[in-house]
Amino acid sequence: MAILETQELTYTYSVGTPFEKTAVDHVSLKIEEGEMIGVMGHTGSGKSTLIQHFNGLLKPTSGKVLLDGKDIWADKDKIRDVRFKVGLVFQYPEYQIFEETVYKDIAFGPKNMGLDEAEIKRRVYETAHDIGLSEELLERSPFELSGGQKRRVAIAGVMAMEPRVLILDEPTAGLDPAGRDKILDHIKSYHERTKNTILIVSHSMEDIATFADRILVMSKAKLFCCDETVKVFARADEISRIGLDVPQITRVFGELKRRGLDFGKEVYTVGYARDLLLRQLKEREVR
Amino acid sequence: MLRDITIGQYFPGNSVIHRLDPRFKIIITIIYIVMLFTGDNFLCLAVGAVFTFGAILLSRIPLKMFFKSVKPLFIFLIITSLINLLFMSRGDVLFEWKFIKITDEGLTTSAFMVIRIVLLIMGTSLLTYTTSPITLTDAIERLLSPLRKIKFPVHELAMMMSIALRFIPTLIEETDKIMSAQKARGAEIDTGSFAVRAKNLVSILVPLFISAFRRADELATAMECRCYHGGEGRTRLRQLRSAPRDYIALAVTVLFLAAVIVLGKLF
């Protein structure tokens, strides 16, 4: 059974005013346990609105959101439990930091869950380690840290609730390449350790291509497609028509194919492209 | 929730009311308020109502938006009418139960007060609905400029007002975002007991203040980069110019005020 599912999910902002706008339009999709999913879409395509439905921050205008097959809005009073099971990290999450120490800020979520002190401590230390924050940072004020470190503190604050589904809205926006790689690497190793479901919203096709099992593409409030990474990037033409890009390396190989050099496979990461080319060269040498 | 606030919202348009000189609009609004408070019978209020709805019709803004502007003050209206209803001892008693005594005069006074306040809110909303905040502060600056003679910092005041107005929507949006982020971490903000909610307010206020200070800092730098040095010798992009229609509007308003005064004296 899918861990998260939406059925004909629709959300309209400011119903009944001149500013009425449908941000999510009849979206039905299924997310399986343990998947790593990349979420793509133009600014204003509805992807941020969509992910805020997964943890019950927004209530659908019509349609349903199912967690473990159960409608999350069946019992309104239980909606907080949904937020502990589906963790959402917003864009620029460092602006939500407020505690005096890094430790306390990471502990805010677990404390709201009503866990005991020992369990909170275990979780804070474990997530700090997962996200690459050294222990001596835990007693510092979060406001003294660098931008990248603050970002990691904020992500740890959600991870520490040990949600079964972790959703990150552009976790690398505004960071330098080194900070970006660090965060993505830590998220990847967290995924390998916990086997939890992860959704990452990103504008970087290169990033998505390296980590995602499946890609979910939103376009003009509708679900454009939700499929395996290879299959999505195989539709390069359609993807660029809705204003999104495929990874540069995919474009290079697309052009090579057009000029008669067909490798017979969809290429979307540089590493894979290198292996493929080296293999081809070796085969030629043998011949 | 926070998005529903309509006070101070501007609806762009090109109606006669929109095109009036903002300085005249402010003066007309002041006369309008005087008009509502000089009249002390229902006839005067009727004249005020004709003026209000006439202006609303001319502005071509849906009437619904004006009722929406009254909504946040609903509790205030109820309290006002209750106080008038319960504590007016003059007039014939219509209903009596224990300490509660309702008189016919109490009934009319409370109805009168509620209508007066509703008209007041609707009329003044018309000013902010049809005038952009920037033009409004421009006009205030011009109207207050005589005070500069007594060393009153008119330009600084207007600048502070326009910056404050400019940042209200930004801060509302920011508050919304921070609230969602803390709710995602299980903070009880619109549920839970009062004590829990009050405690969780800290998790919203601290980030909000930090971001407000950051924005202020950035804005100051941006203004300095563009050589802002106060109001001295500063010219404007949009010069305020009065047209014949402004004088006509003013004359009509004064006429209405005169009518109210006359009606108030006669009846």
Automatic annotation (TrEMBL), chain A:
Task: Describe the task this protein carries out.
Answer: ATP-binding (A) component of a common energy-coupling factor (ECF) ABC-transporter complex.
Q: Which source organism?
A: Ruminococcus flavefaciens 007c
The record's EC number reads: 7.-.-.-
Task: List the GO molecular function terms.
Answer: ATP binding; ATP hydrolysis activity; ATPase-coupled transmembrane transporter activity
UniProt cross-references to InterPro entries, sorted A to Z:
AAA+_ATPase, ABC_transporter-like_ATP-bd, ABC_transporter-like_CS, ABC_transpr_CbiO/EcfA_su, ECF_ABC_transporter_ATP-bd, EcfA2, P-loop_NTPase
Q: Which UniProt keywords apply?
A: ATP-binding, Cell membrane, Membrane, Nucleotide-binding, Translocase, Transport
- SUPFAM superfamilies from the UniProt entry: P-loop containing nucleoside triphosphate hydrolases
| Annotated ABC transporter domain residues | 4-245
Q: Which gene encodes it?
A: cbiO
Q: GO CC terms on record?
A: ATP-binding cassette (ABC) transporter complex
Gene3D superfamilies to which the protein is assigned, alphabetical = P-loop containing nucleotide triphosphate hydrolases (3.40.50.300)
- Pfam families for this protein: ABC_tran
Membrane topology classification: Peripheral membrane protein
Any idea where this protein resides? Cell membrane
Quaternary state and interactors: Forms a stable energy-coupling factor (ECF) transporter complex composed of 2 membrane-embedded substrate-binding proteins (S component), 2 ATP-binding proteins (A component) and 2 transmembrane proteins (T component).
> Do you know which PANTHER family this protein is assigned to?
ENERGY-COUPLING FACTOR TRANSPORTER ATP-BINDING PROTEIN ECFA2, HEAVY METAL TRANSPORTER
Q: What name does the UniProt record give this protein?
A: Energy-coupling factor transporter ATP-binding protein EcfA2
The family assignment reads: Belongs to the ABC transporter superfamily. Energy-coupling factor EcfA family.
**What NCBIfam families does UniProt report for this protein, alphabetically?**
ECF_ATPase_2, PRK13637.1
From TrEMBL, chain B:
Against HAMAP family, the record matches this protein to:
EcfT (MF_01461)
One Pfam family matching this protein:
CbiQ
Q: Which GO terms describe its cellular component?
A: plasma membrane
Keywords, A to Z, come to:
Cell membrane, Membrane, Transmembrane, Transmembrane helix, Transport
Instruction: Give the record's subunit note.
Output: Forms a stable energy-coupling factor (ECF) transporter complex composed of 2 membrane-embedded substrate-binding proteins (S component), 2 ATP-binding proteins (A component) and 2 transmembrane proteins (T component).
The entry's protein name is Energy-coupling factor transporter transmembrane protein EcfT
Q: What does this protein do?
A: Transmembrane (T) component of an energy-coupling factor (ECF) ABC-transporter complex. Unlike classic ABC transporters this ECF transporter provides the energy necessary to transport a number of different substrates.
Membrane spanning segments where?
26-58, 70-89, 109-131, 247-266
Q: How does it sit in the membrane?
A: Multi-pass membrane protein
Q: What is its main location?
A: membrane
For molecular function, the Gene Ontology terms on record are: transmembrane transporter activity
> Can you say where in the cell this protein is located?
Cell membrane
The record's similarity note reads: Belongs to the energy-coupling factor EcfT family.
**InterPro entries recorded:** ABC/ECF_trnsptr_transmembrane, ECF_transporter_component, EcfT
Q: What is the gene name?
A: ecfT
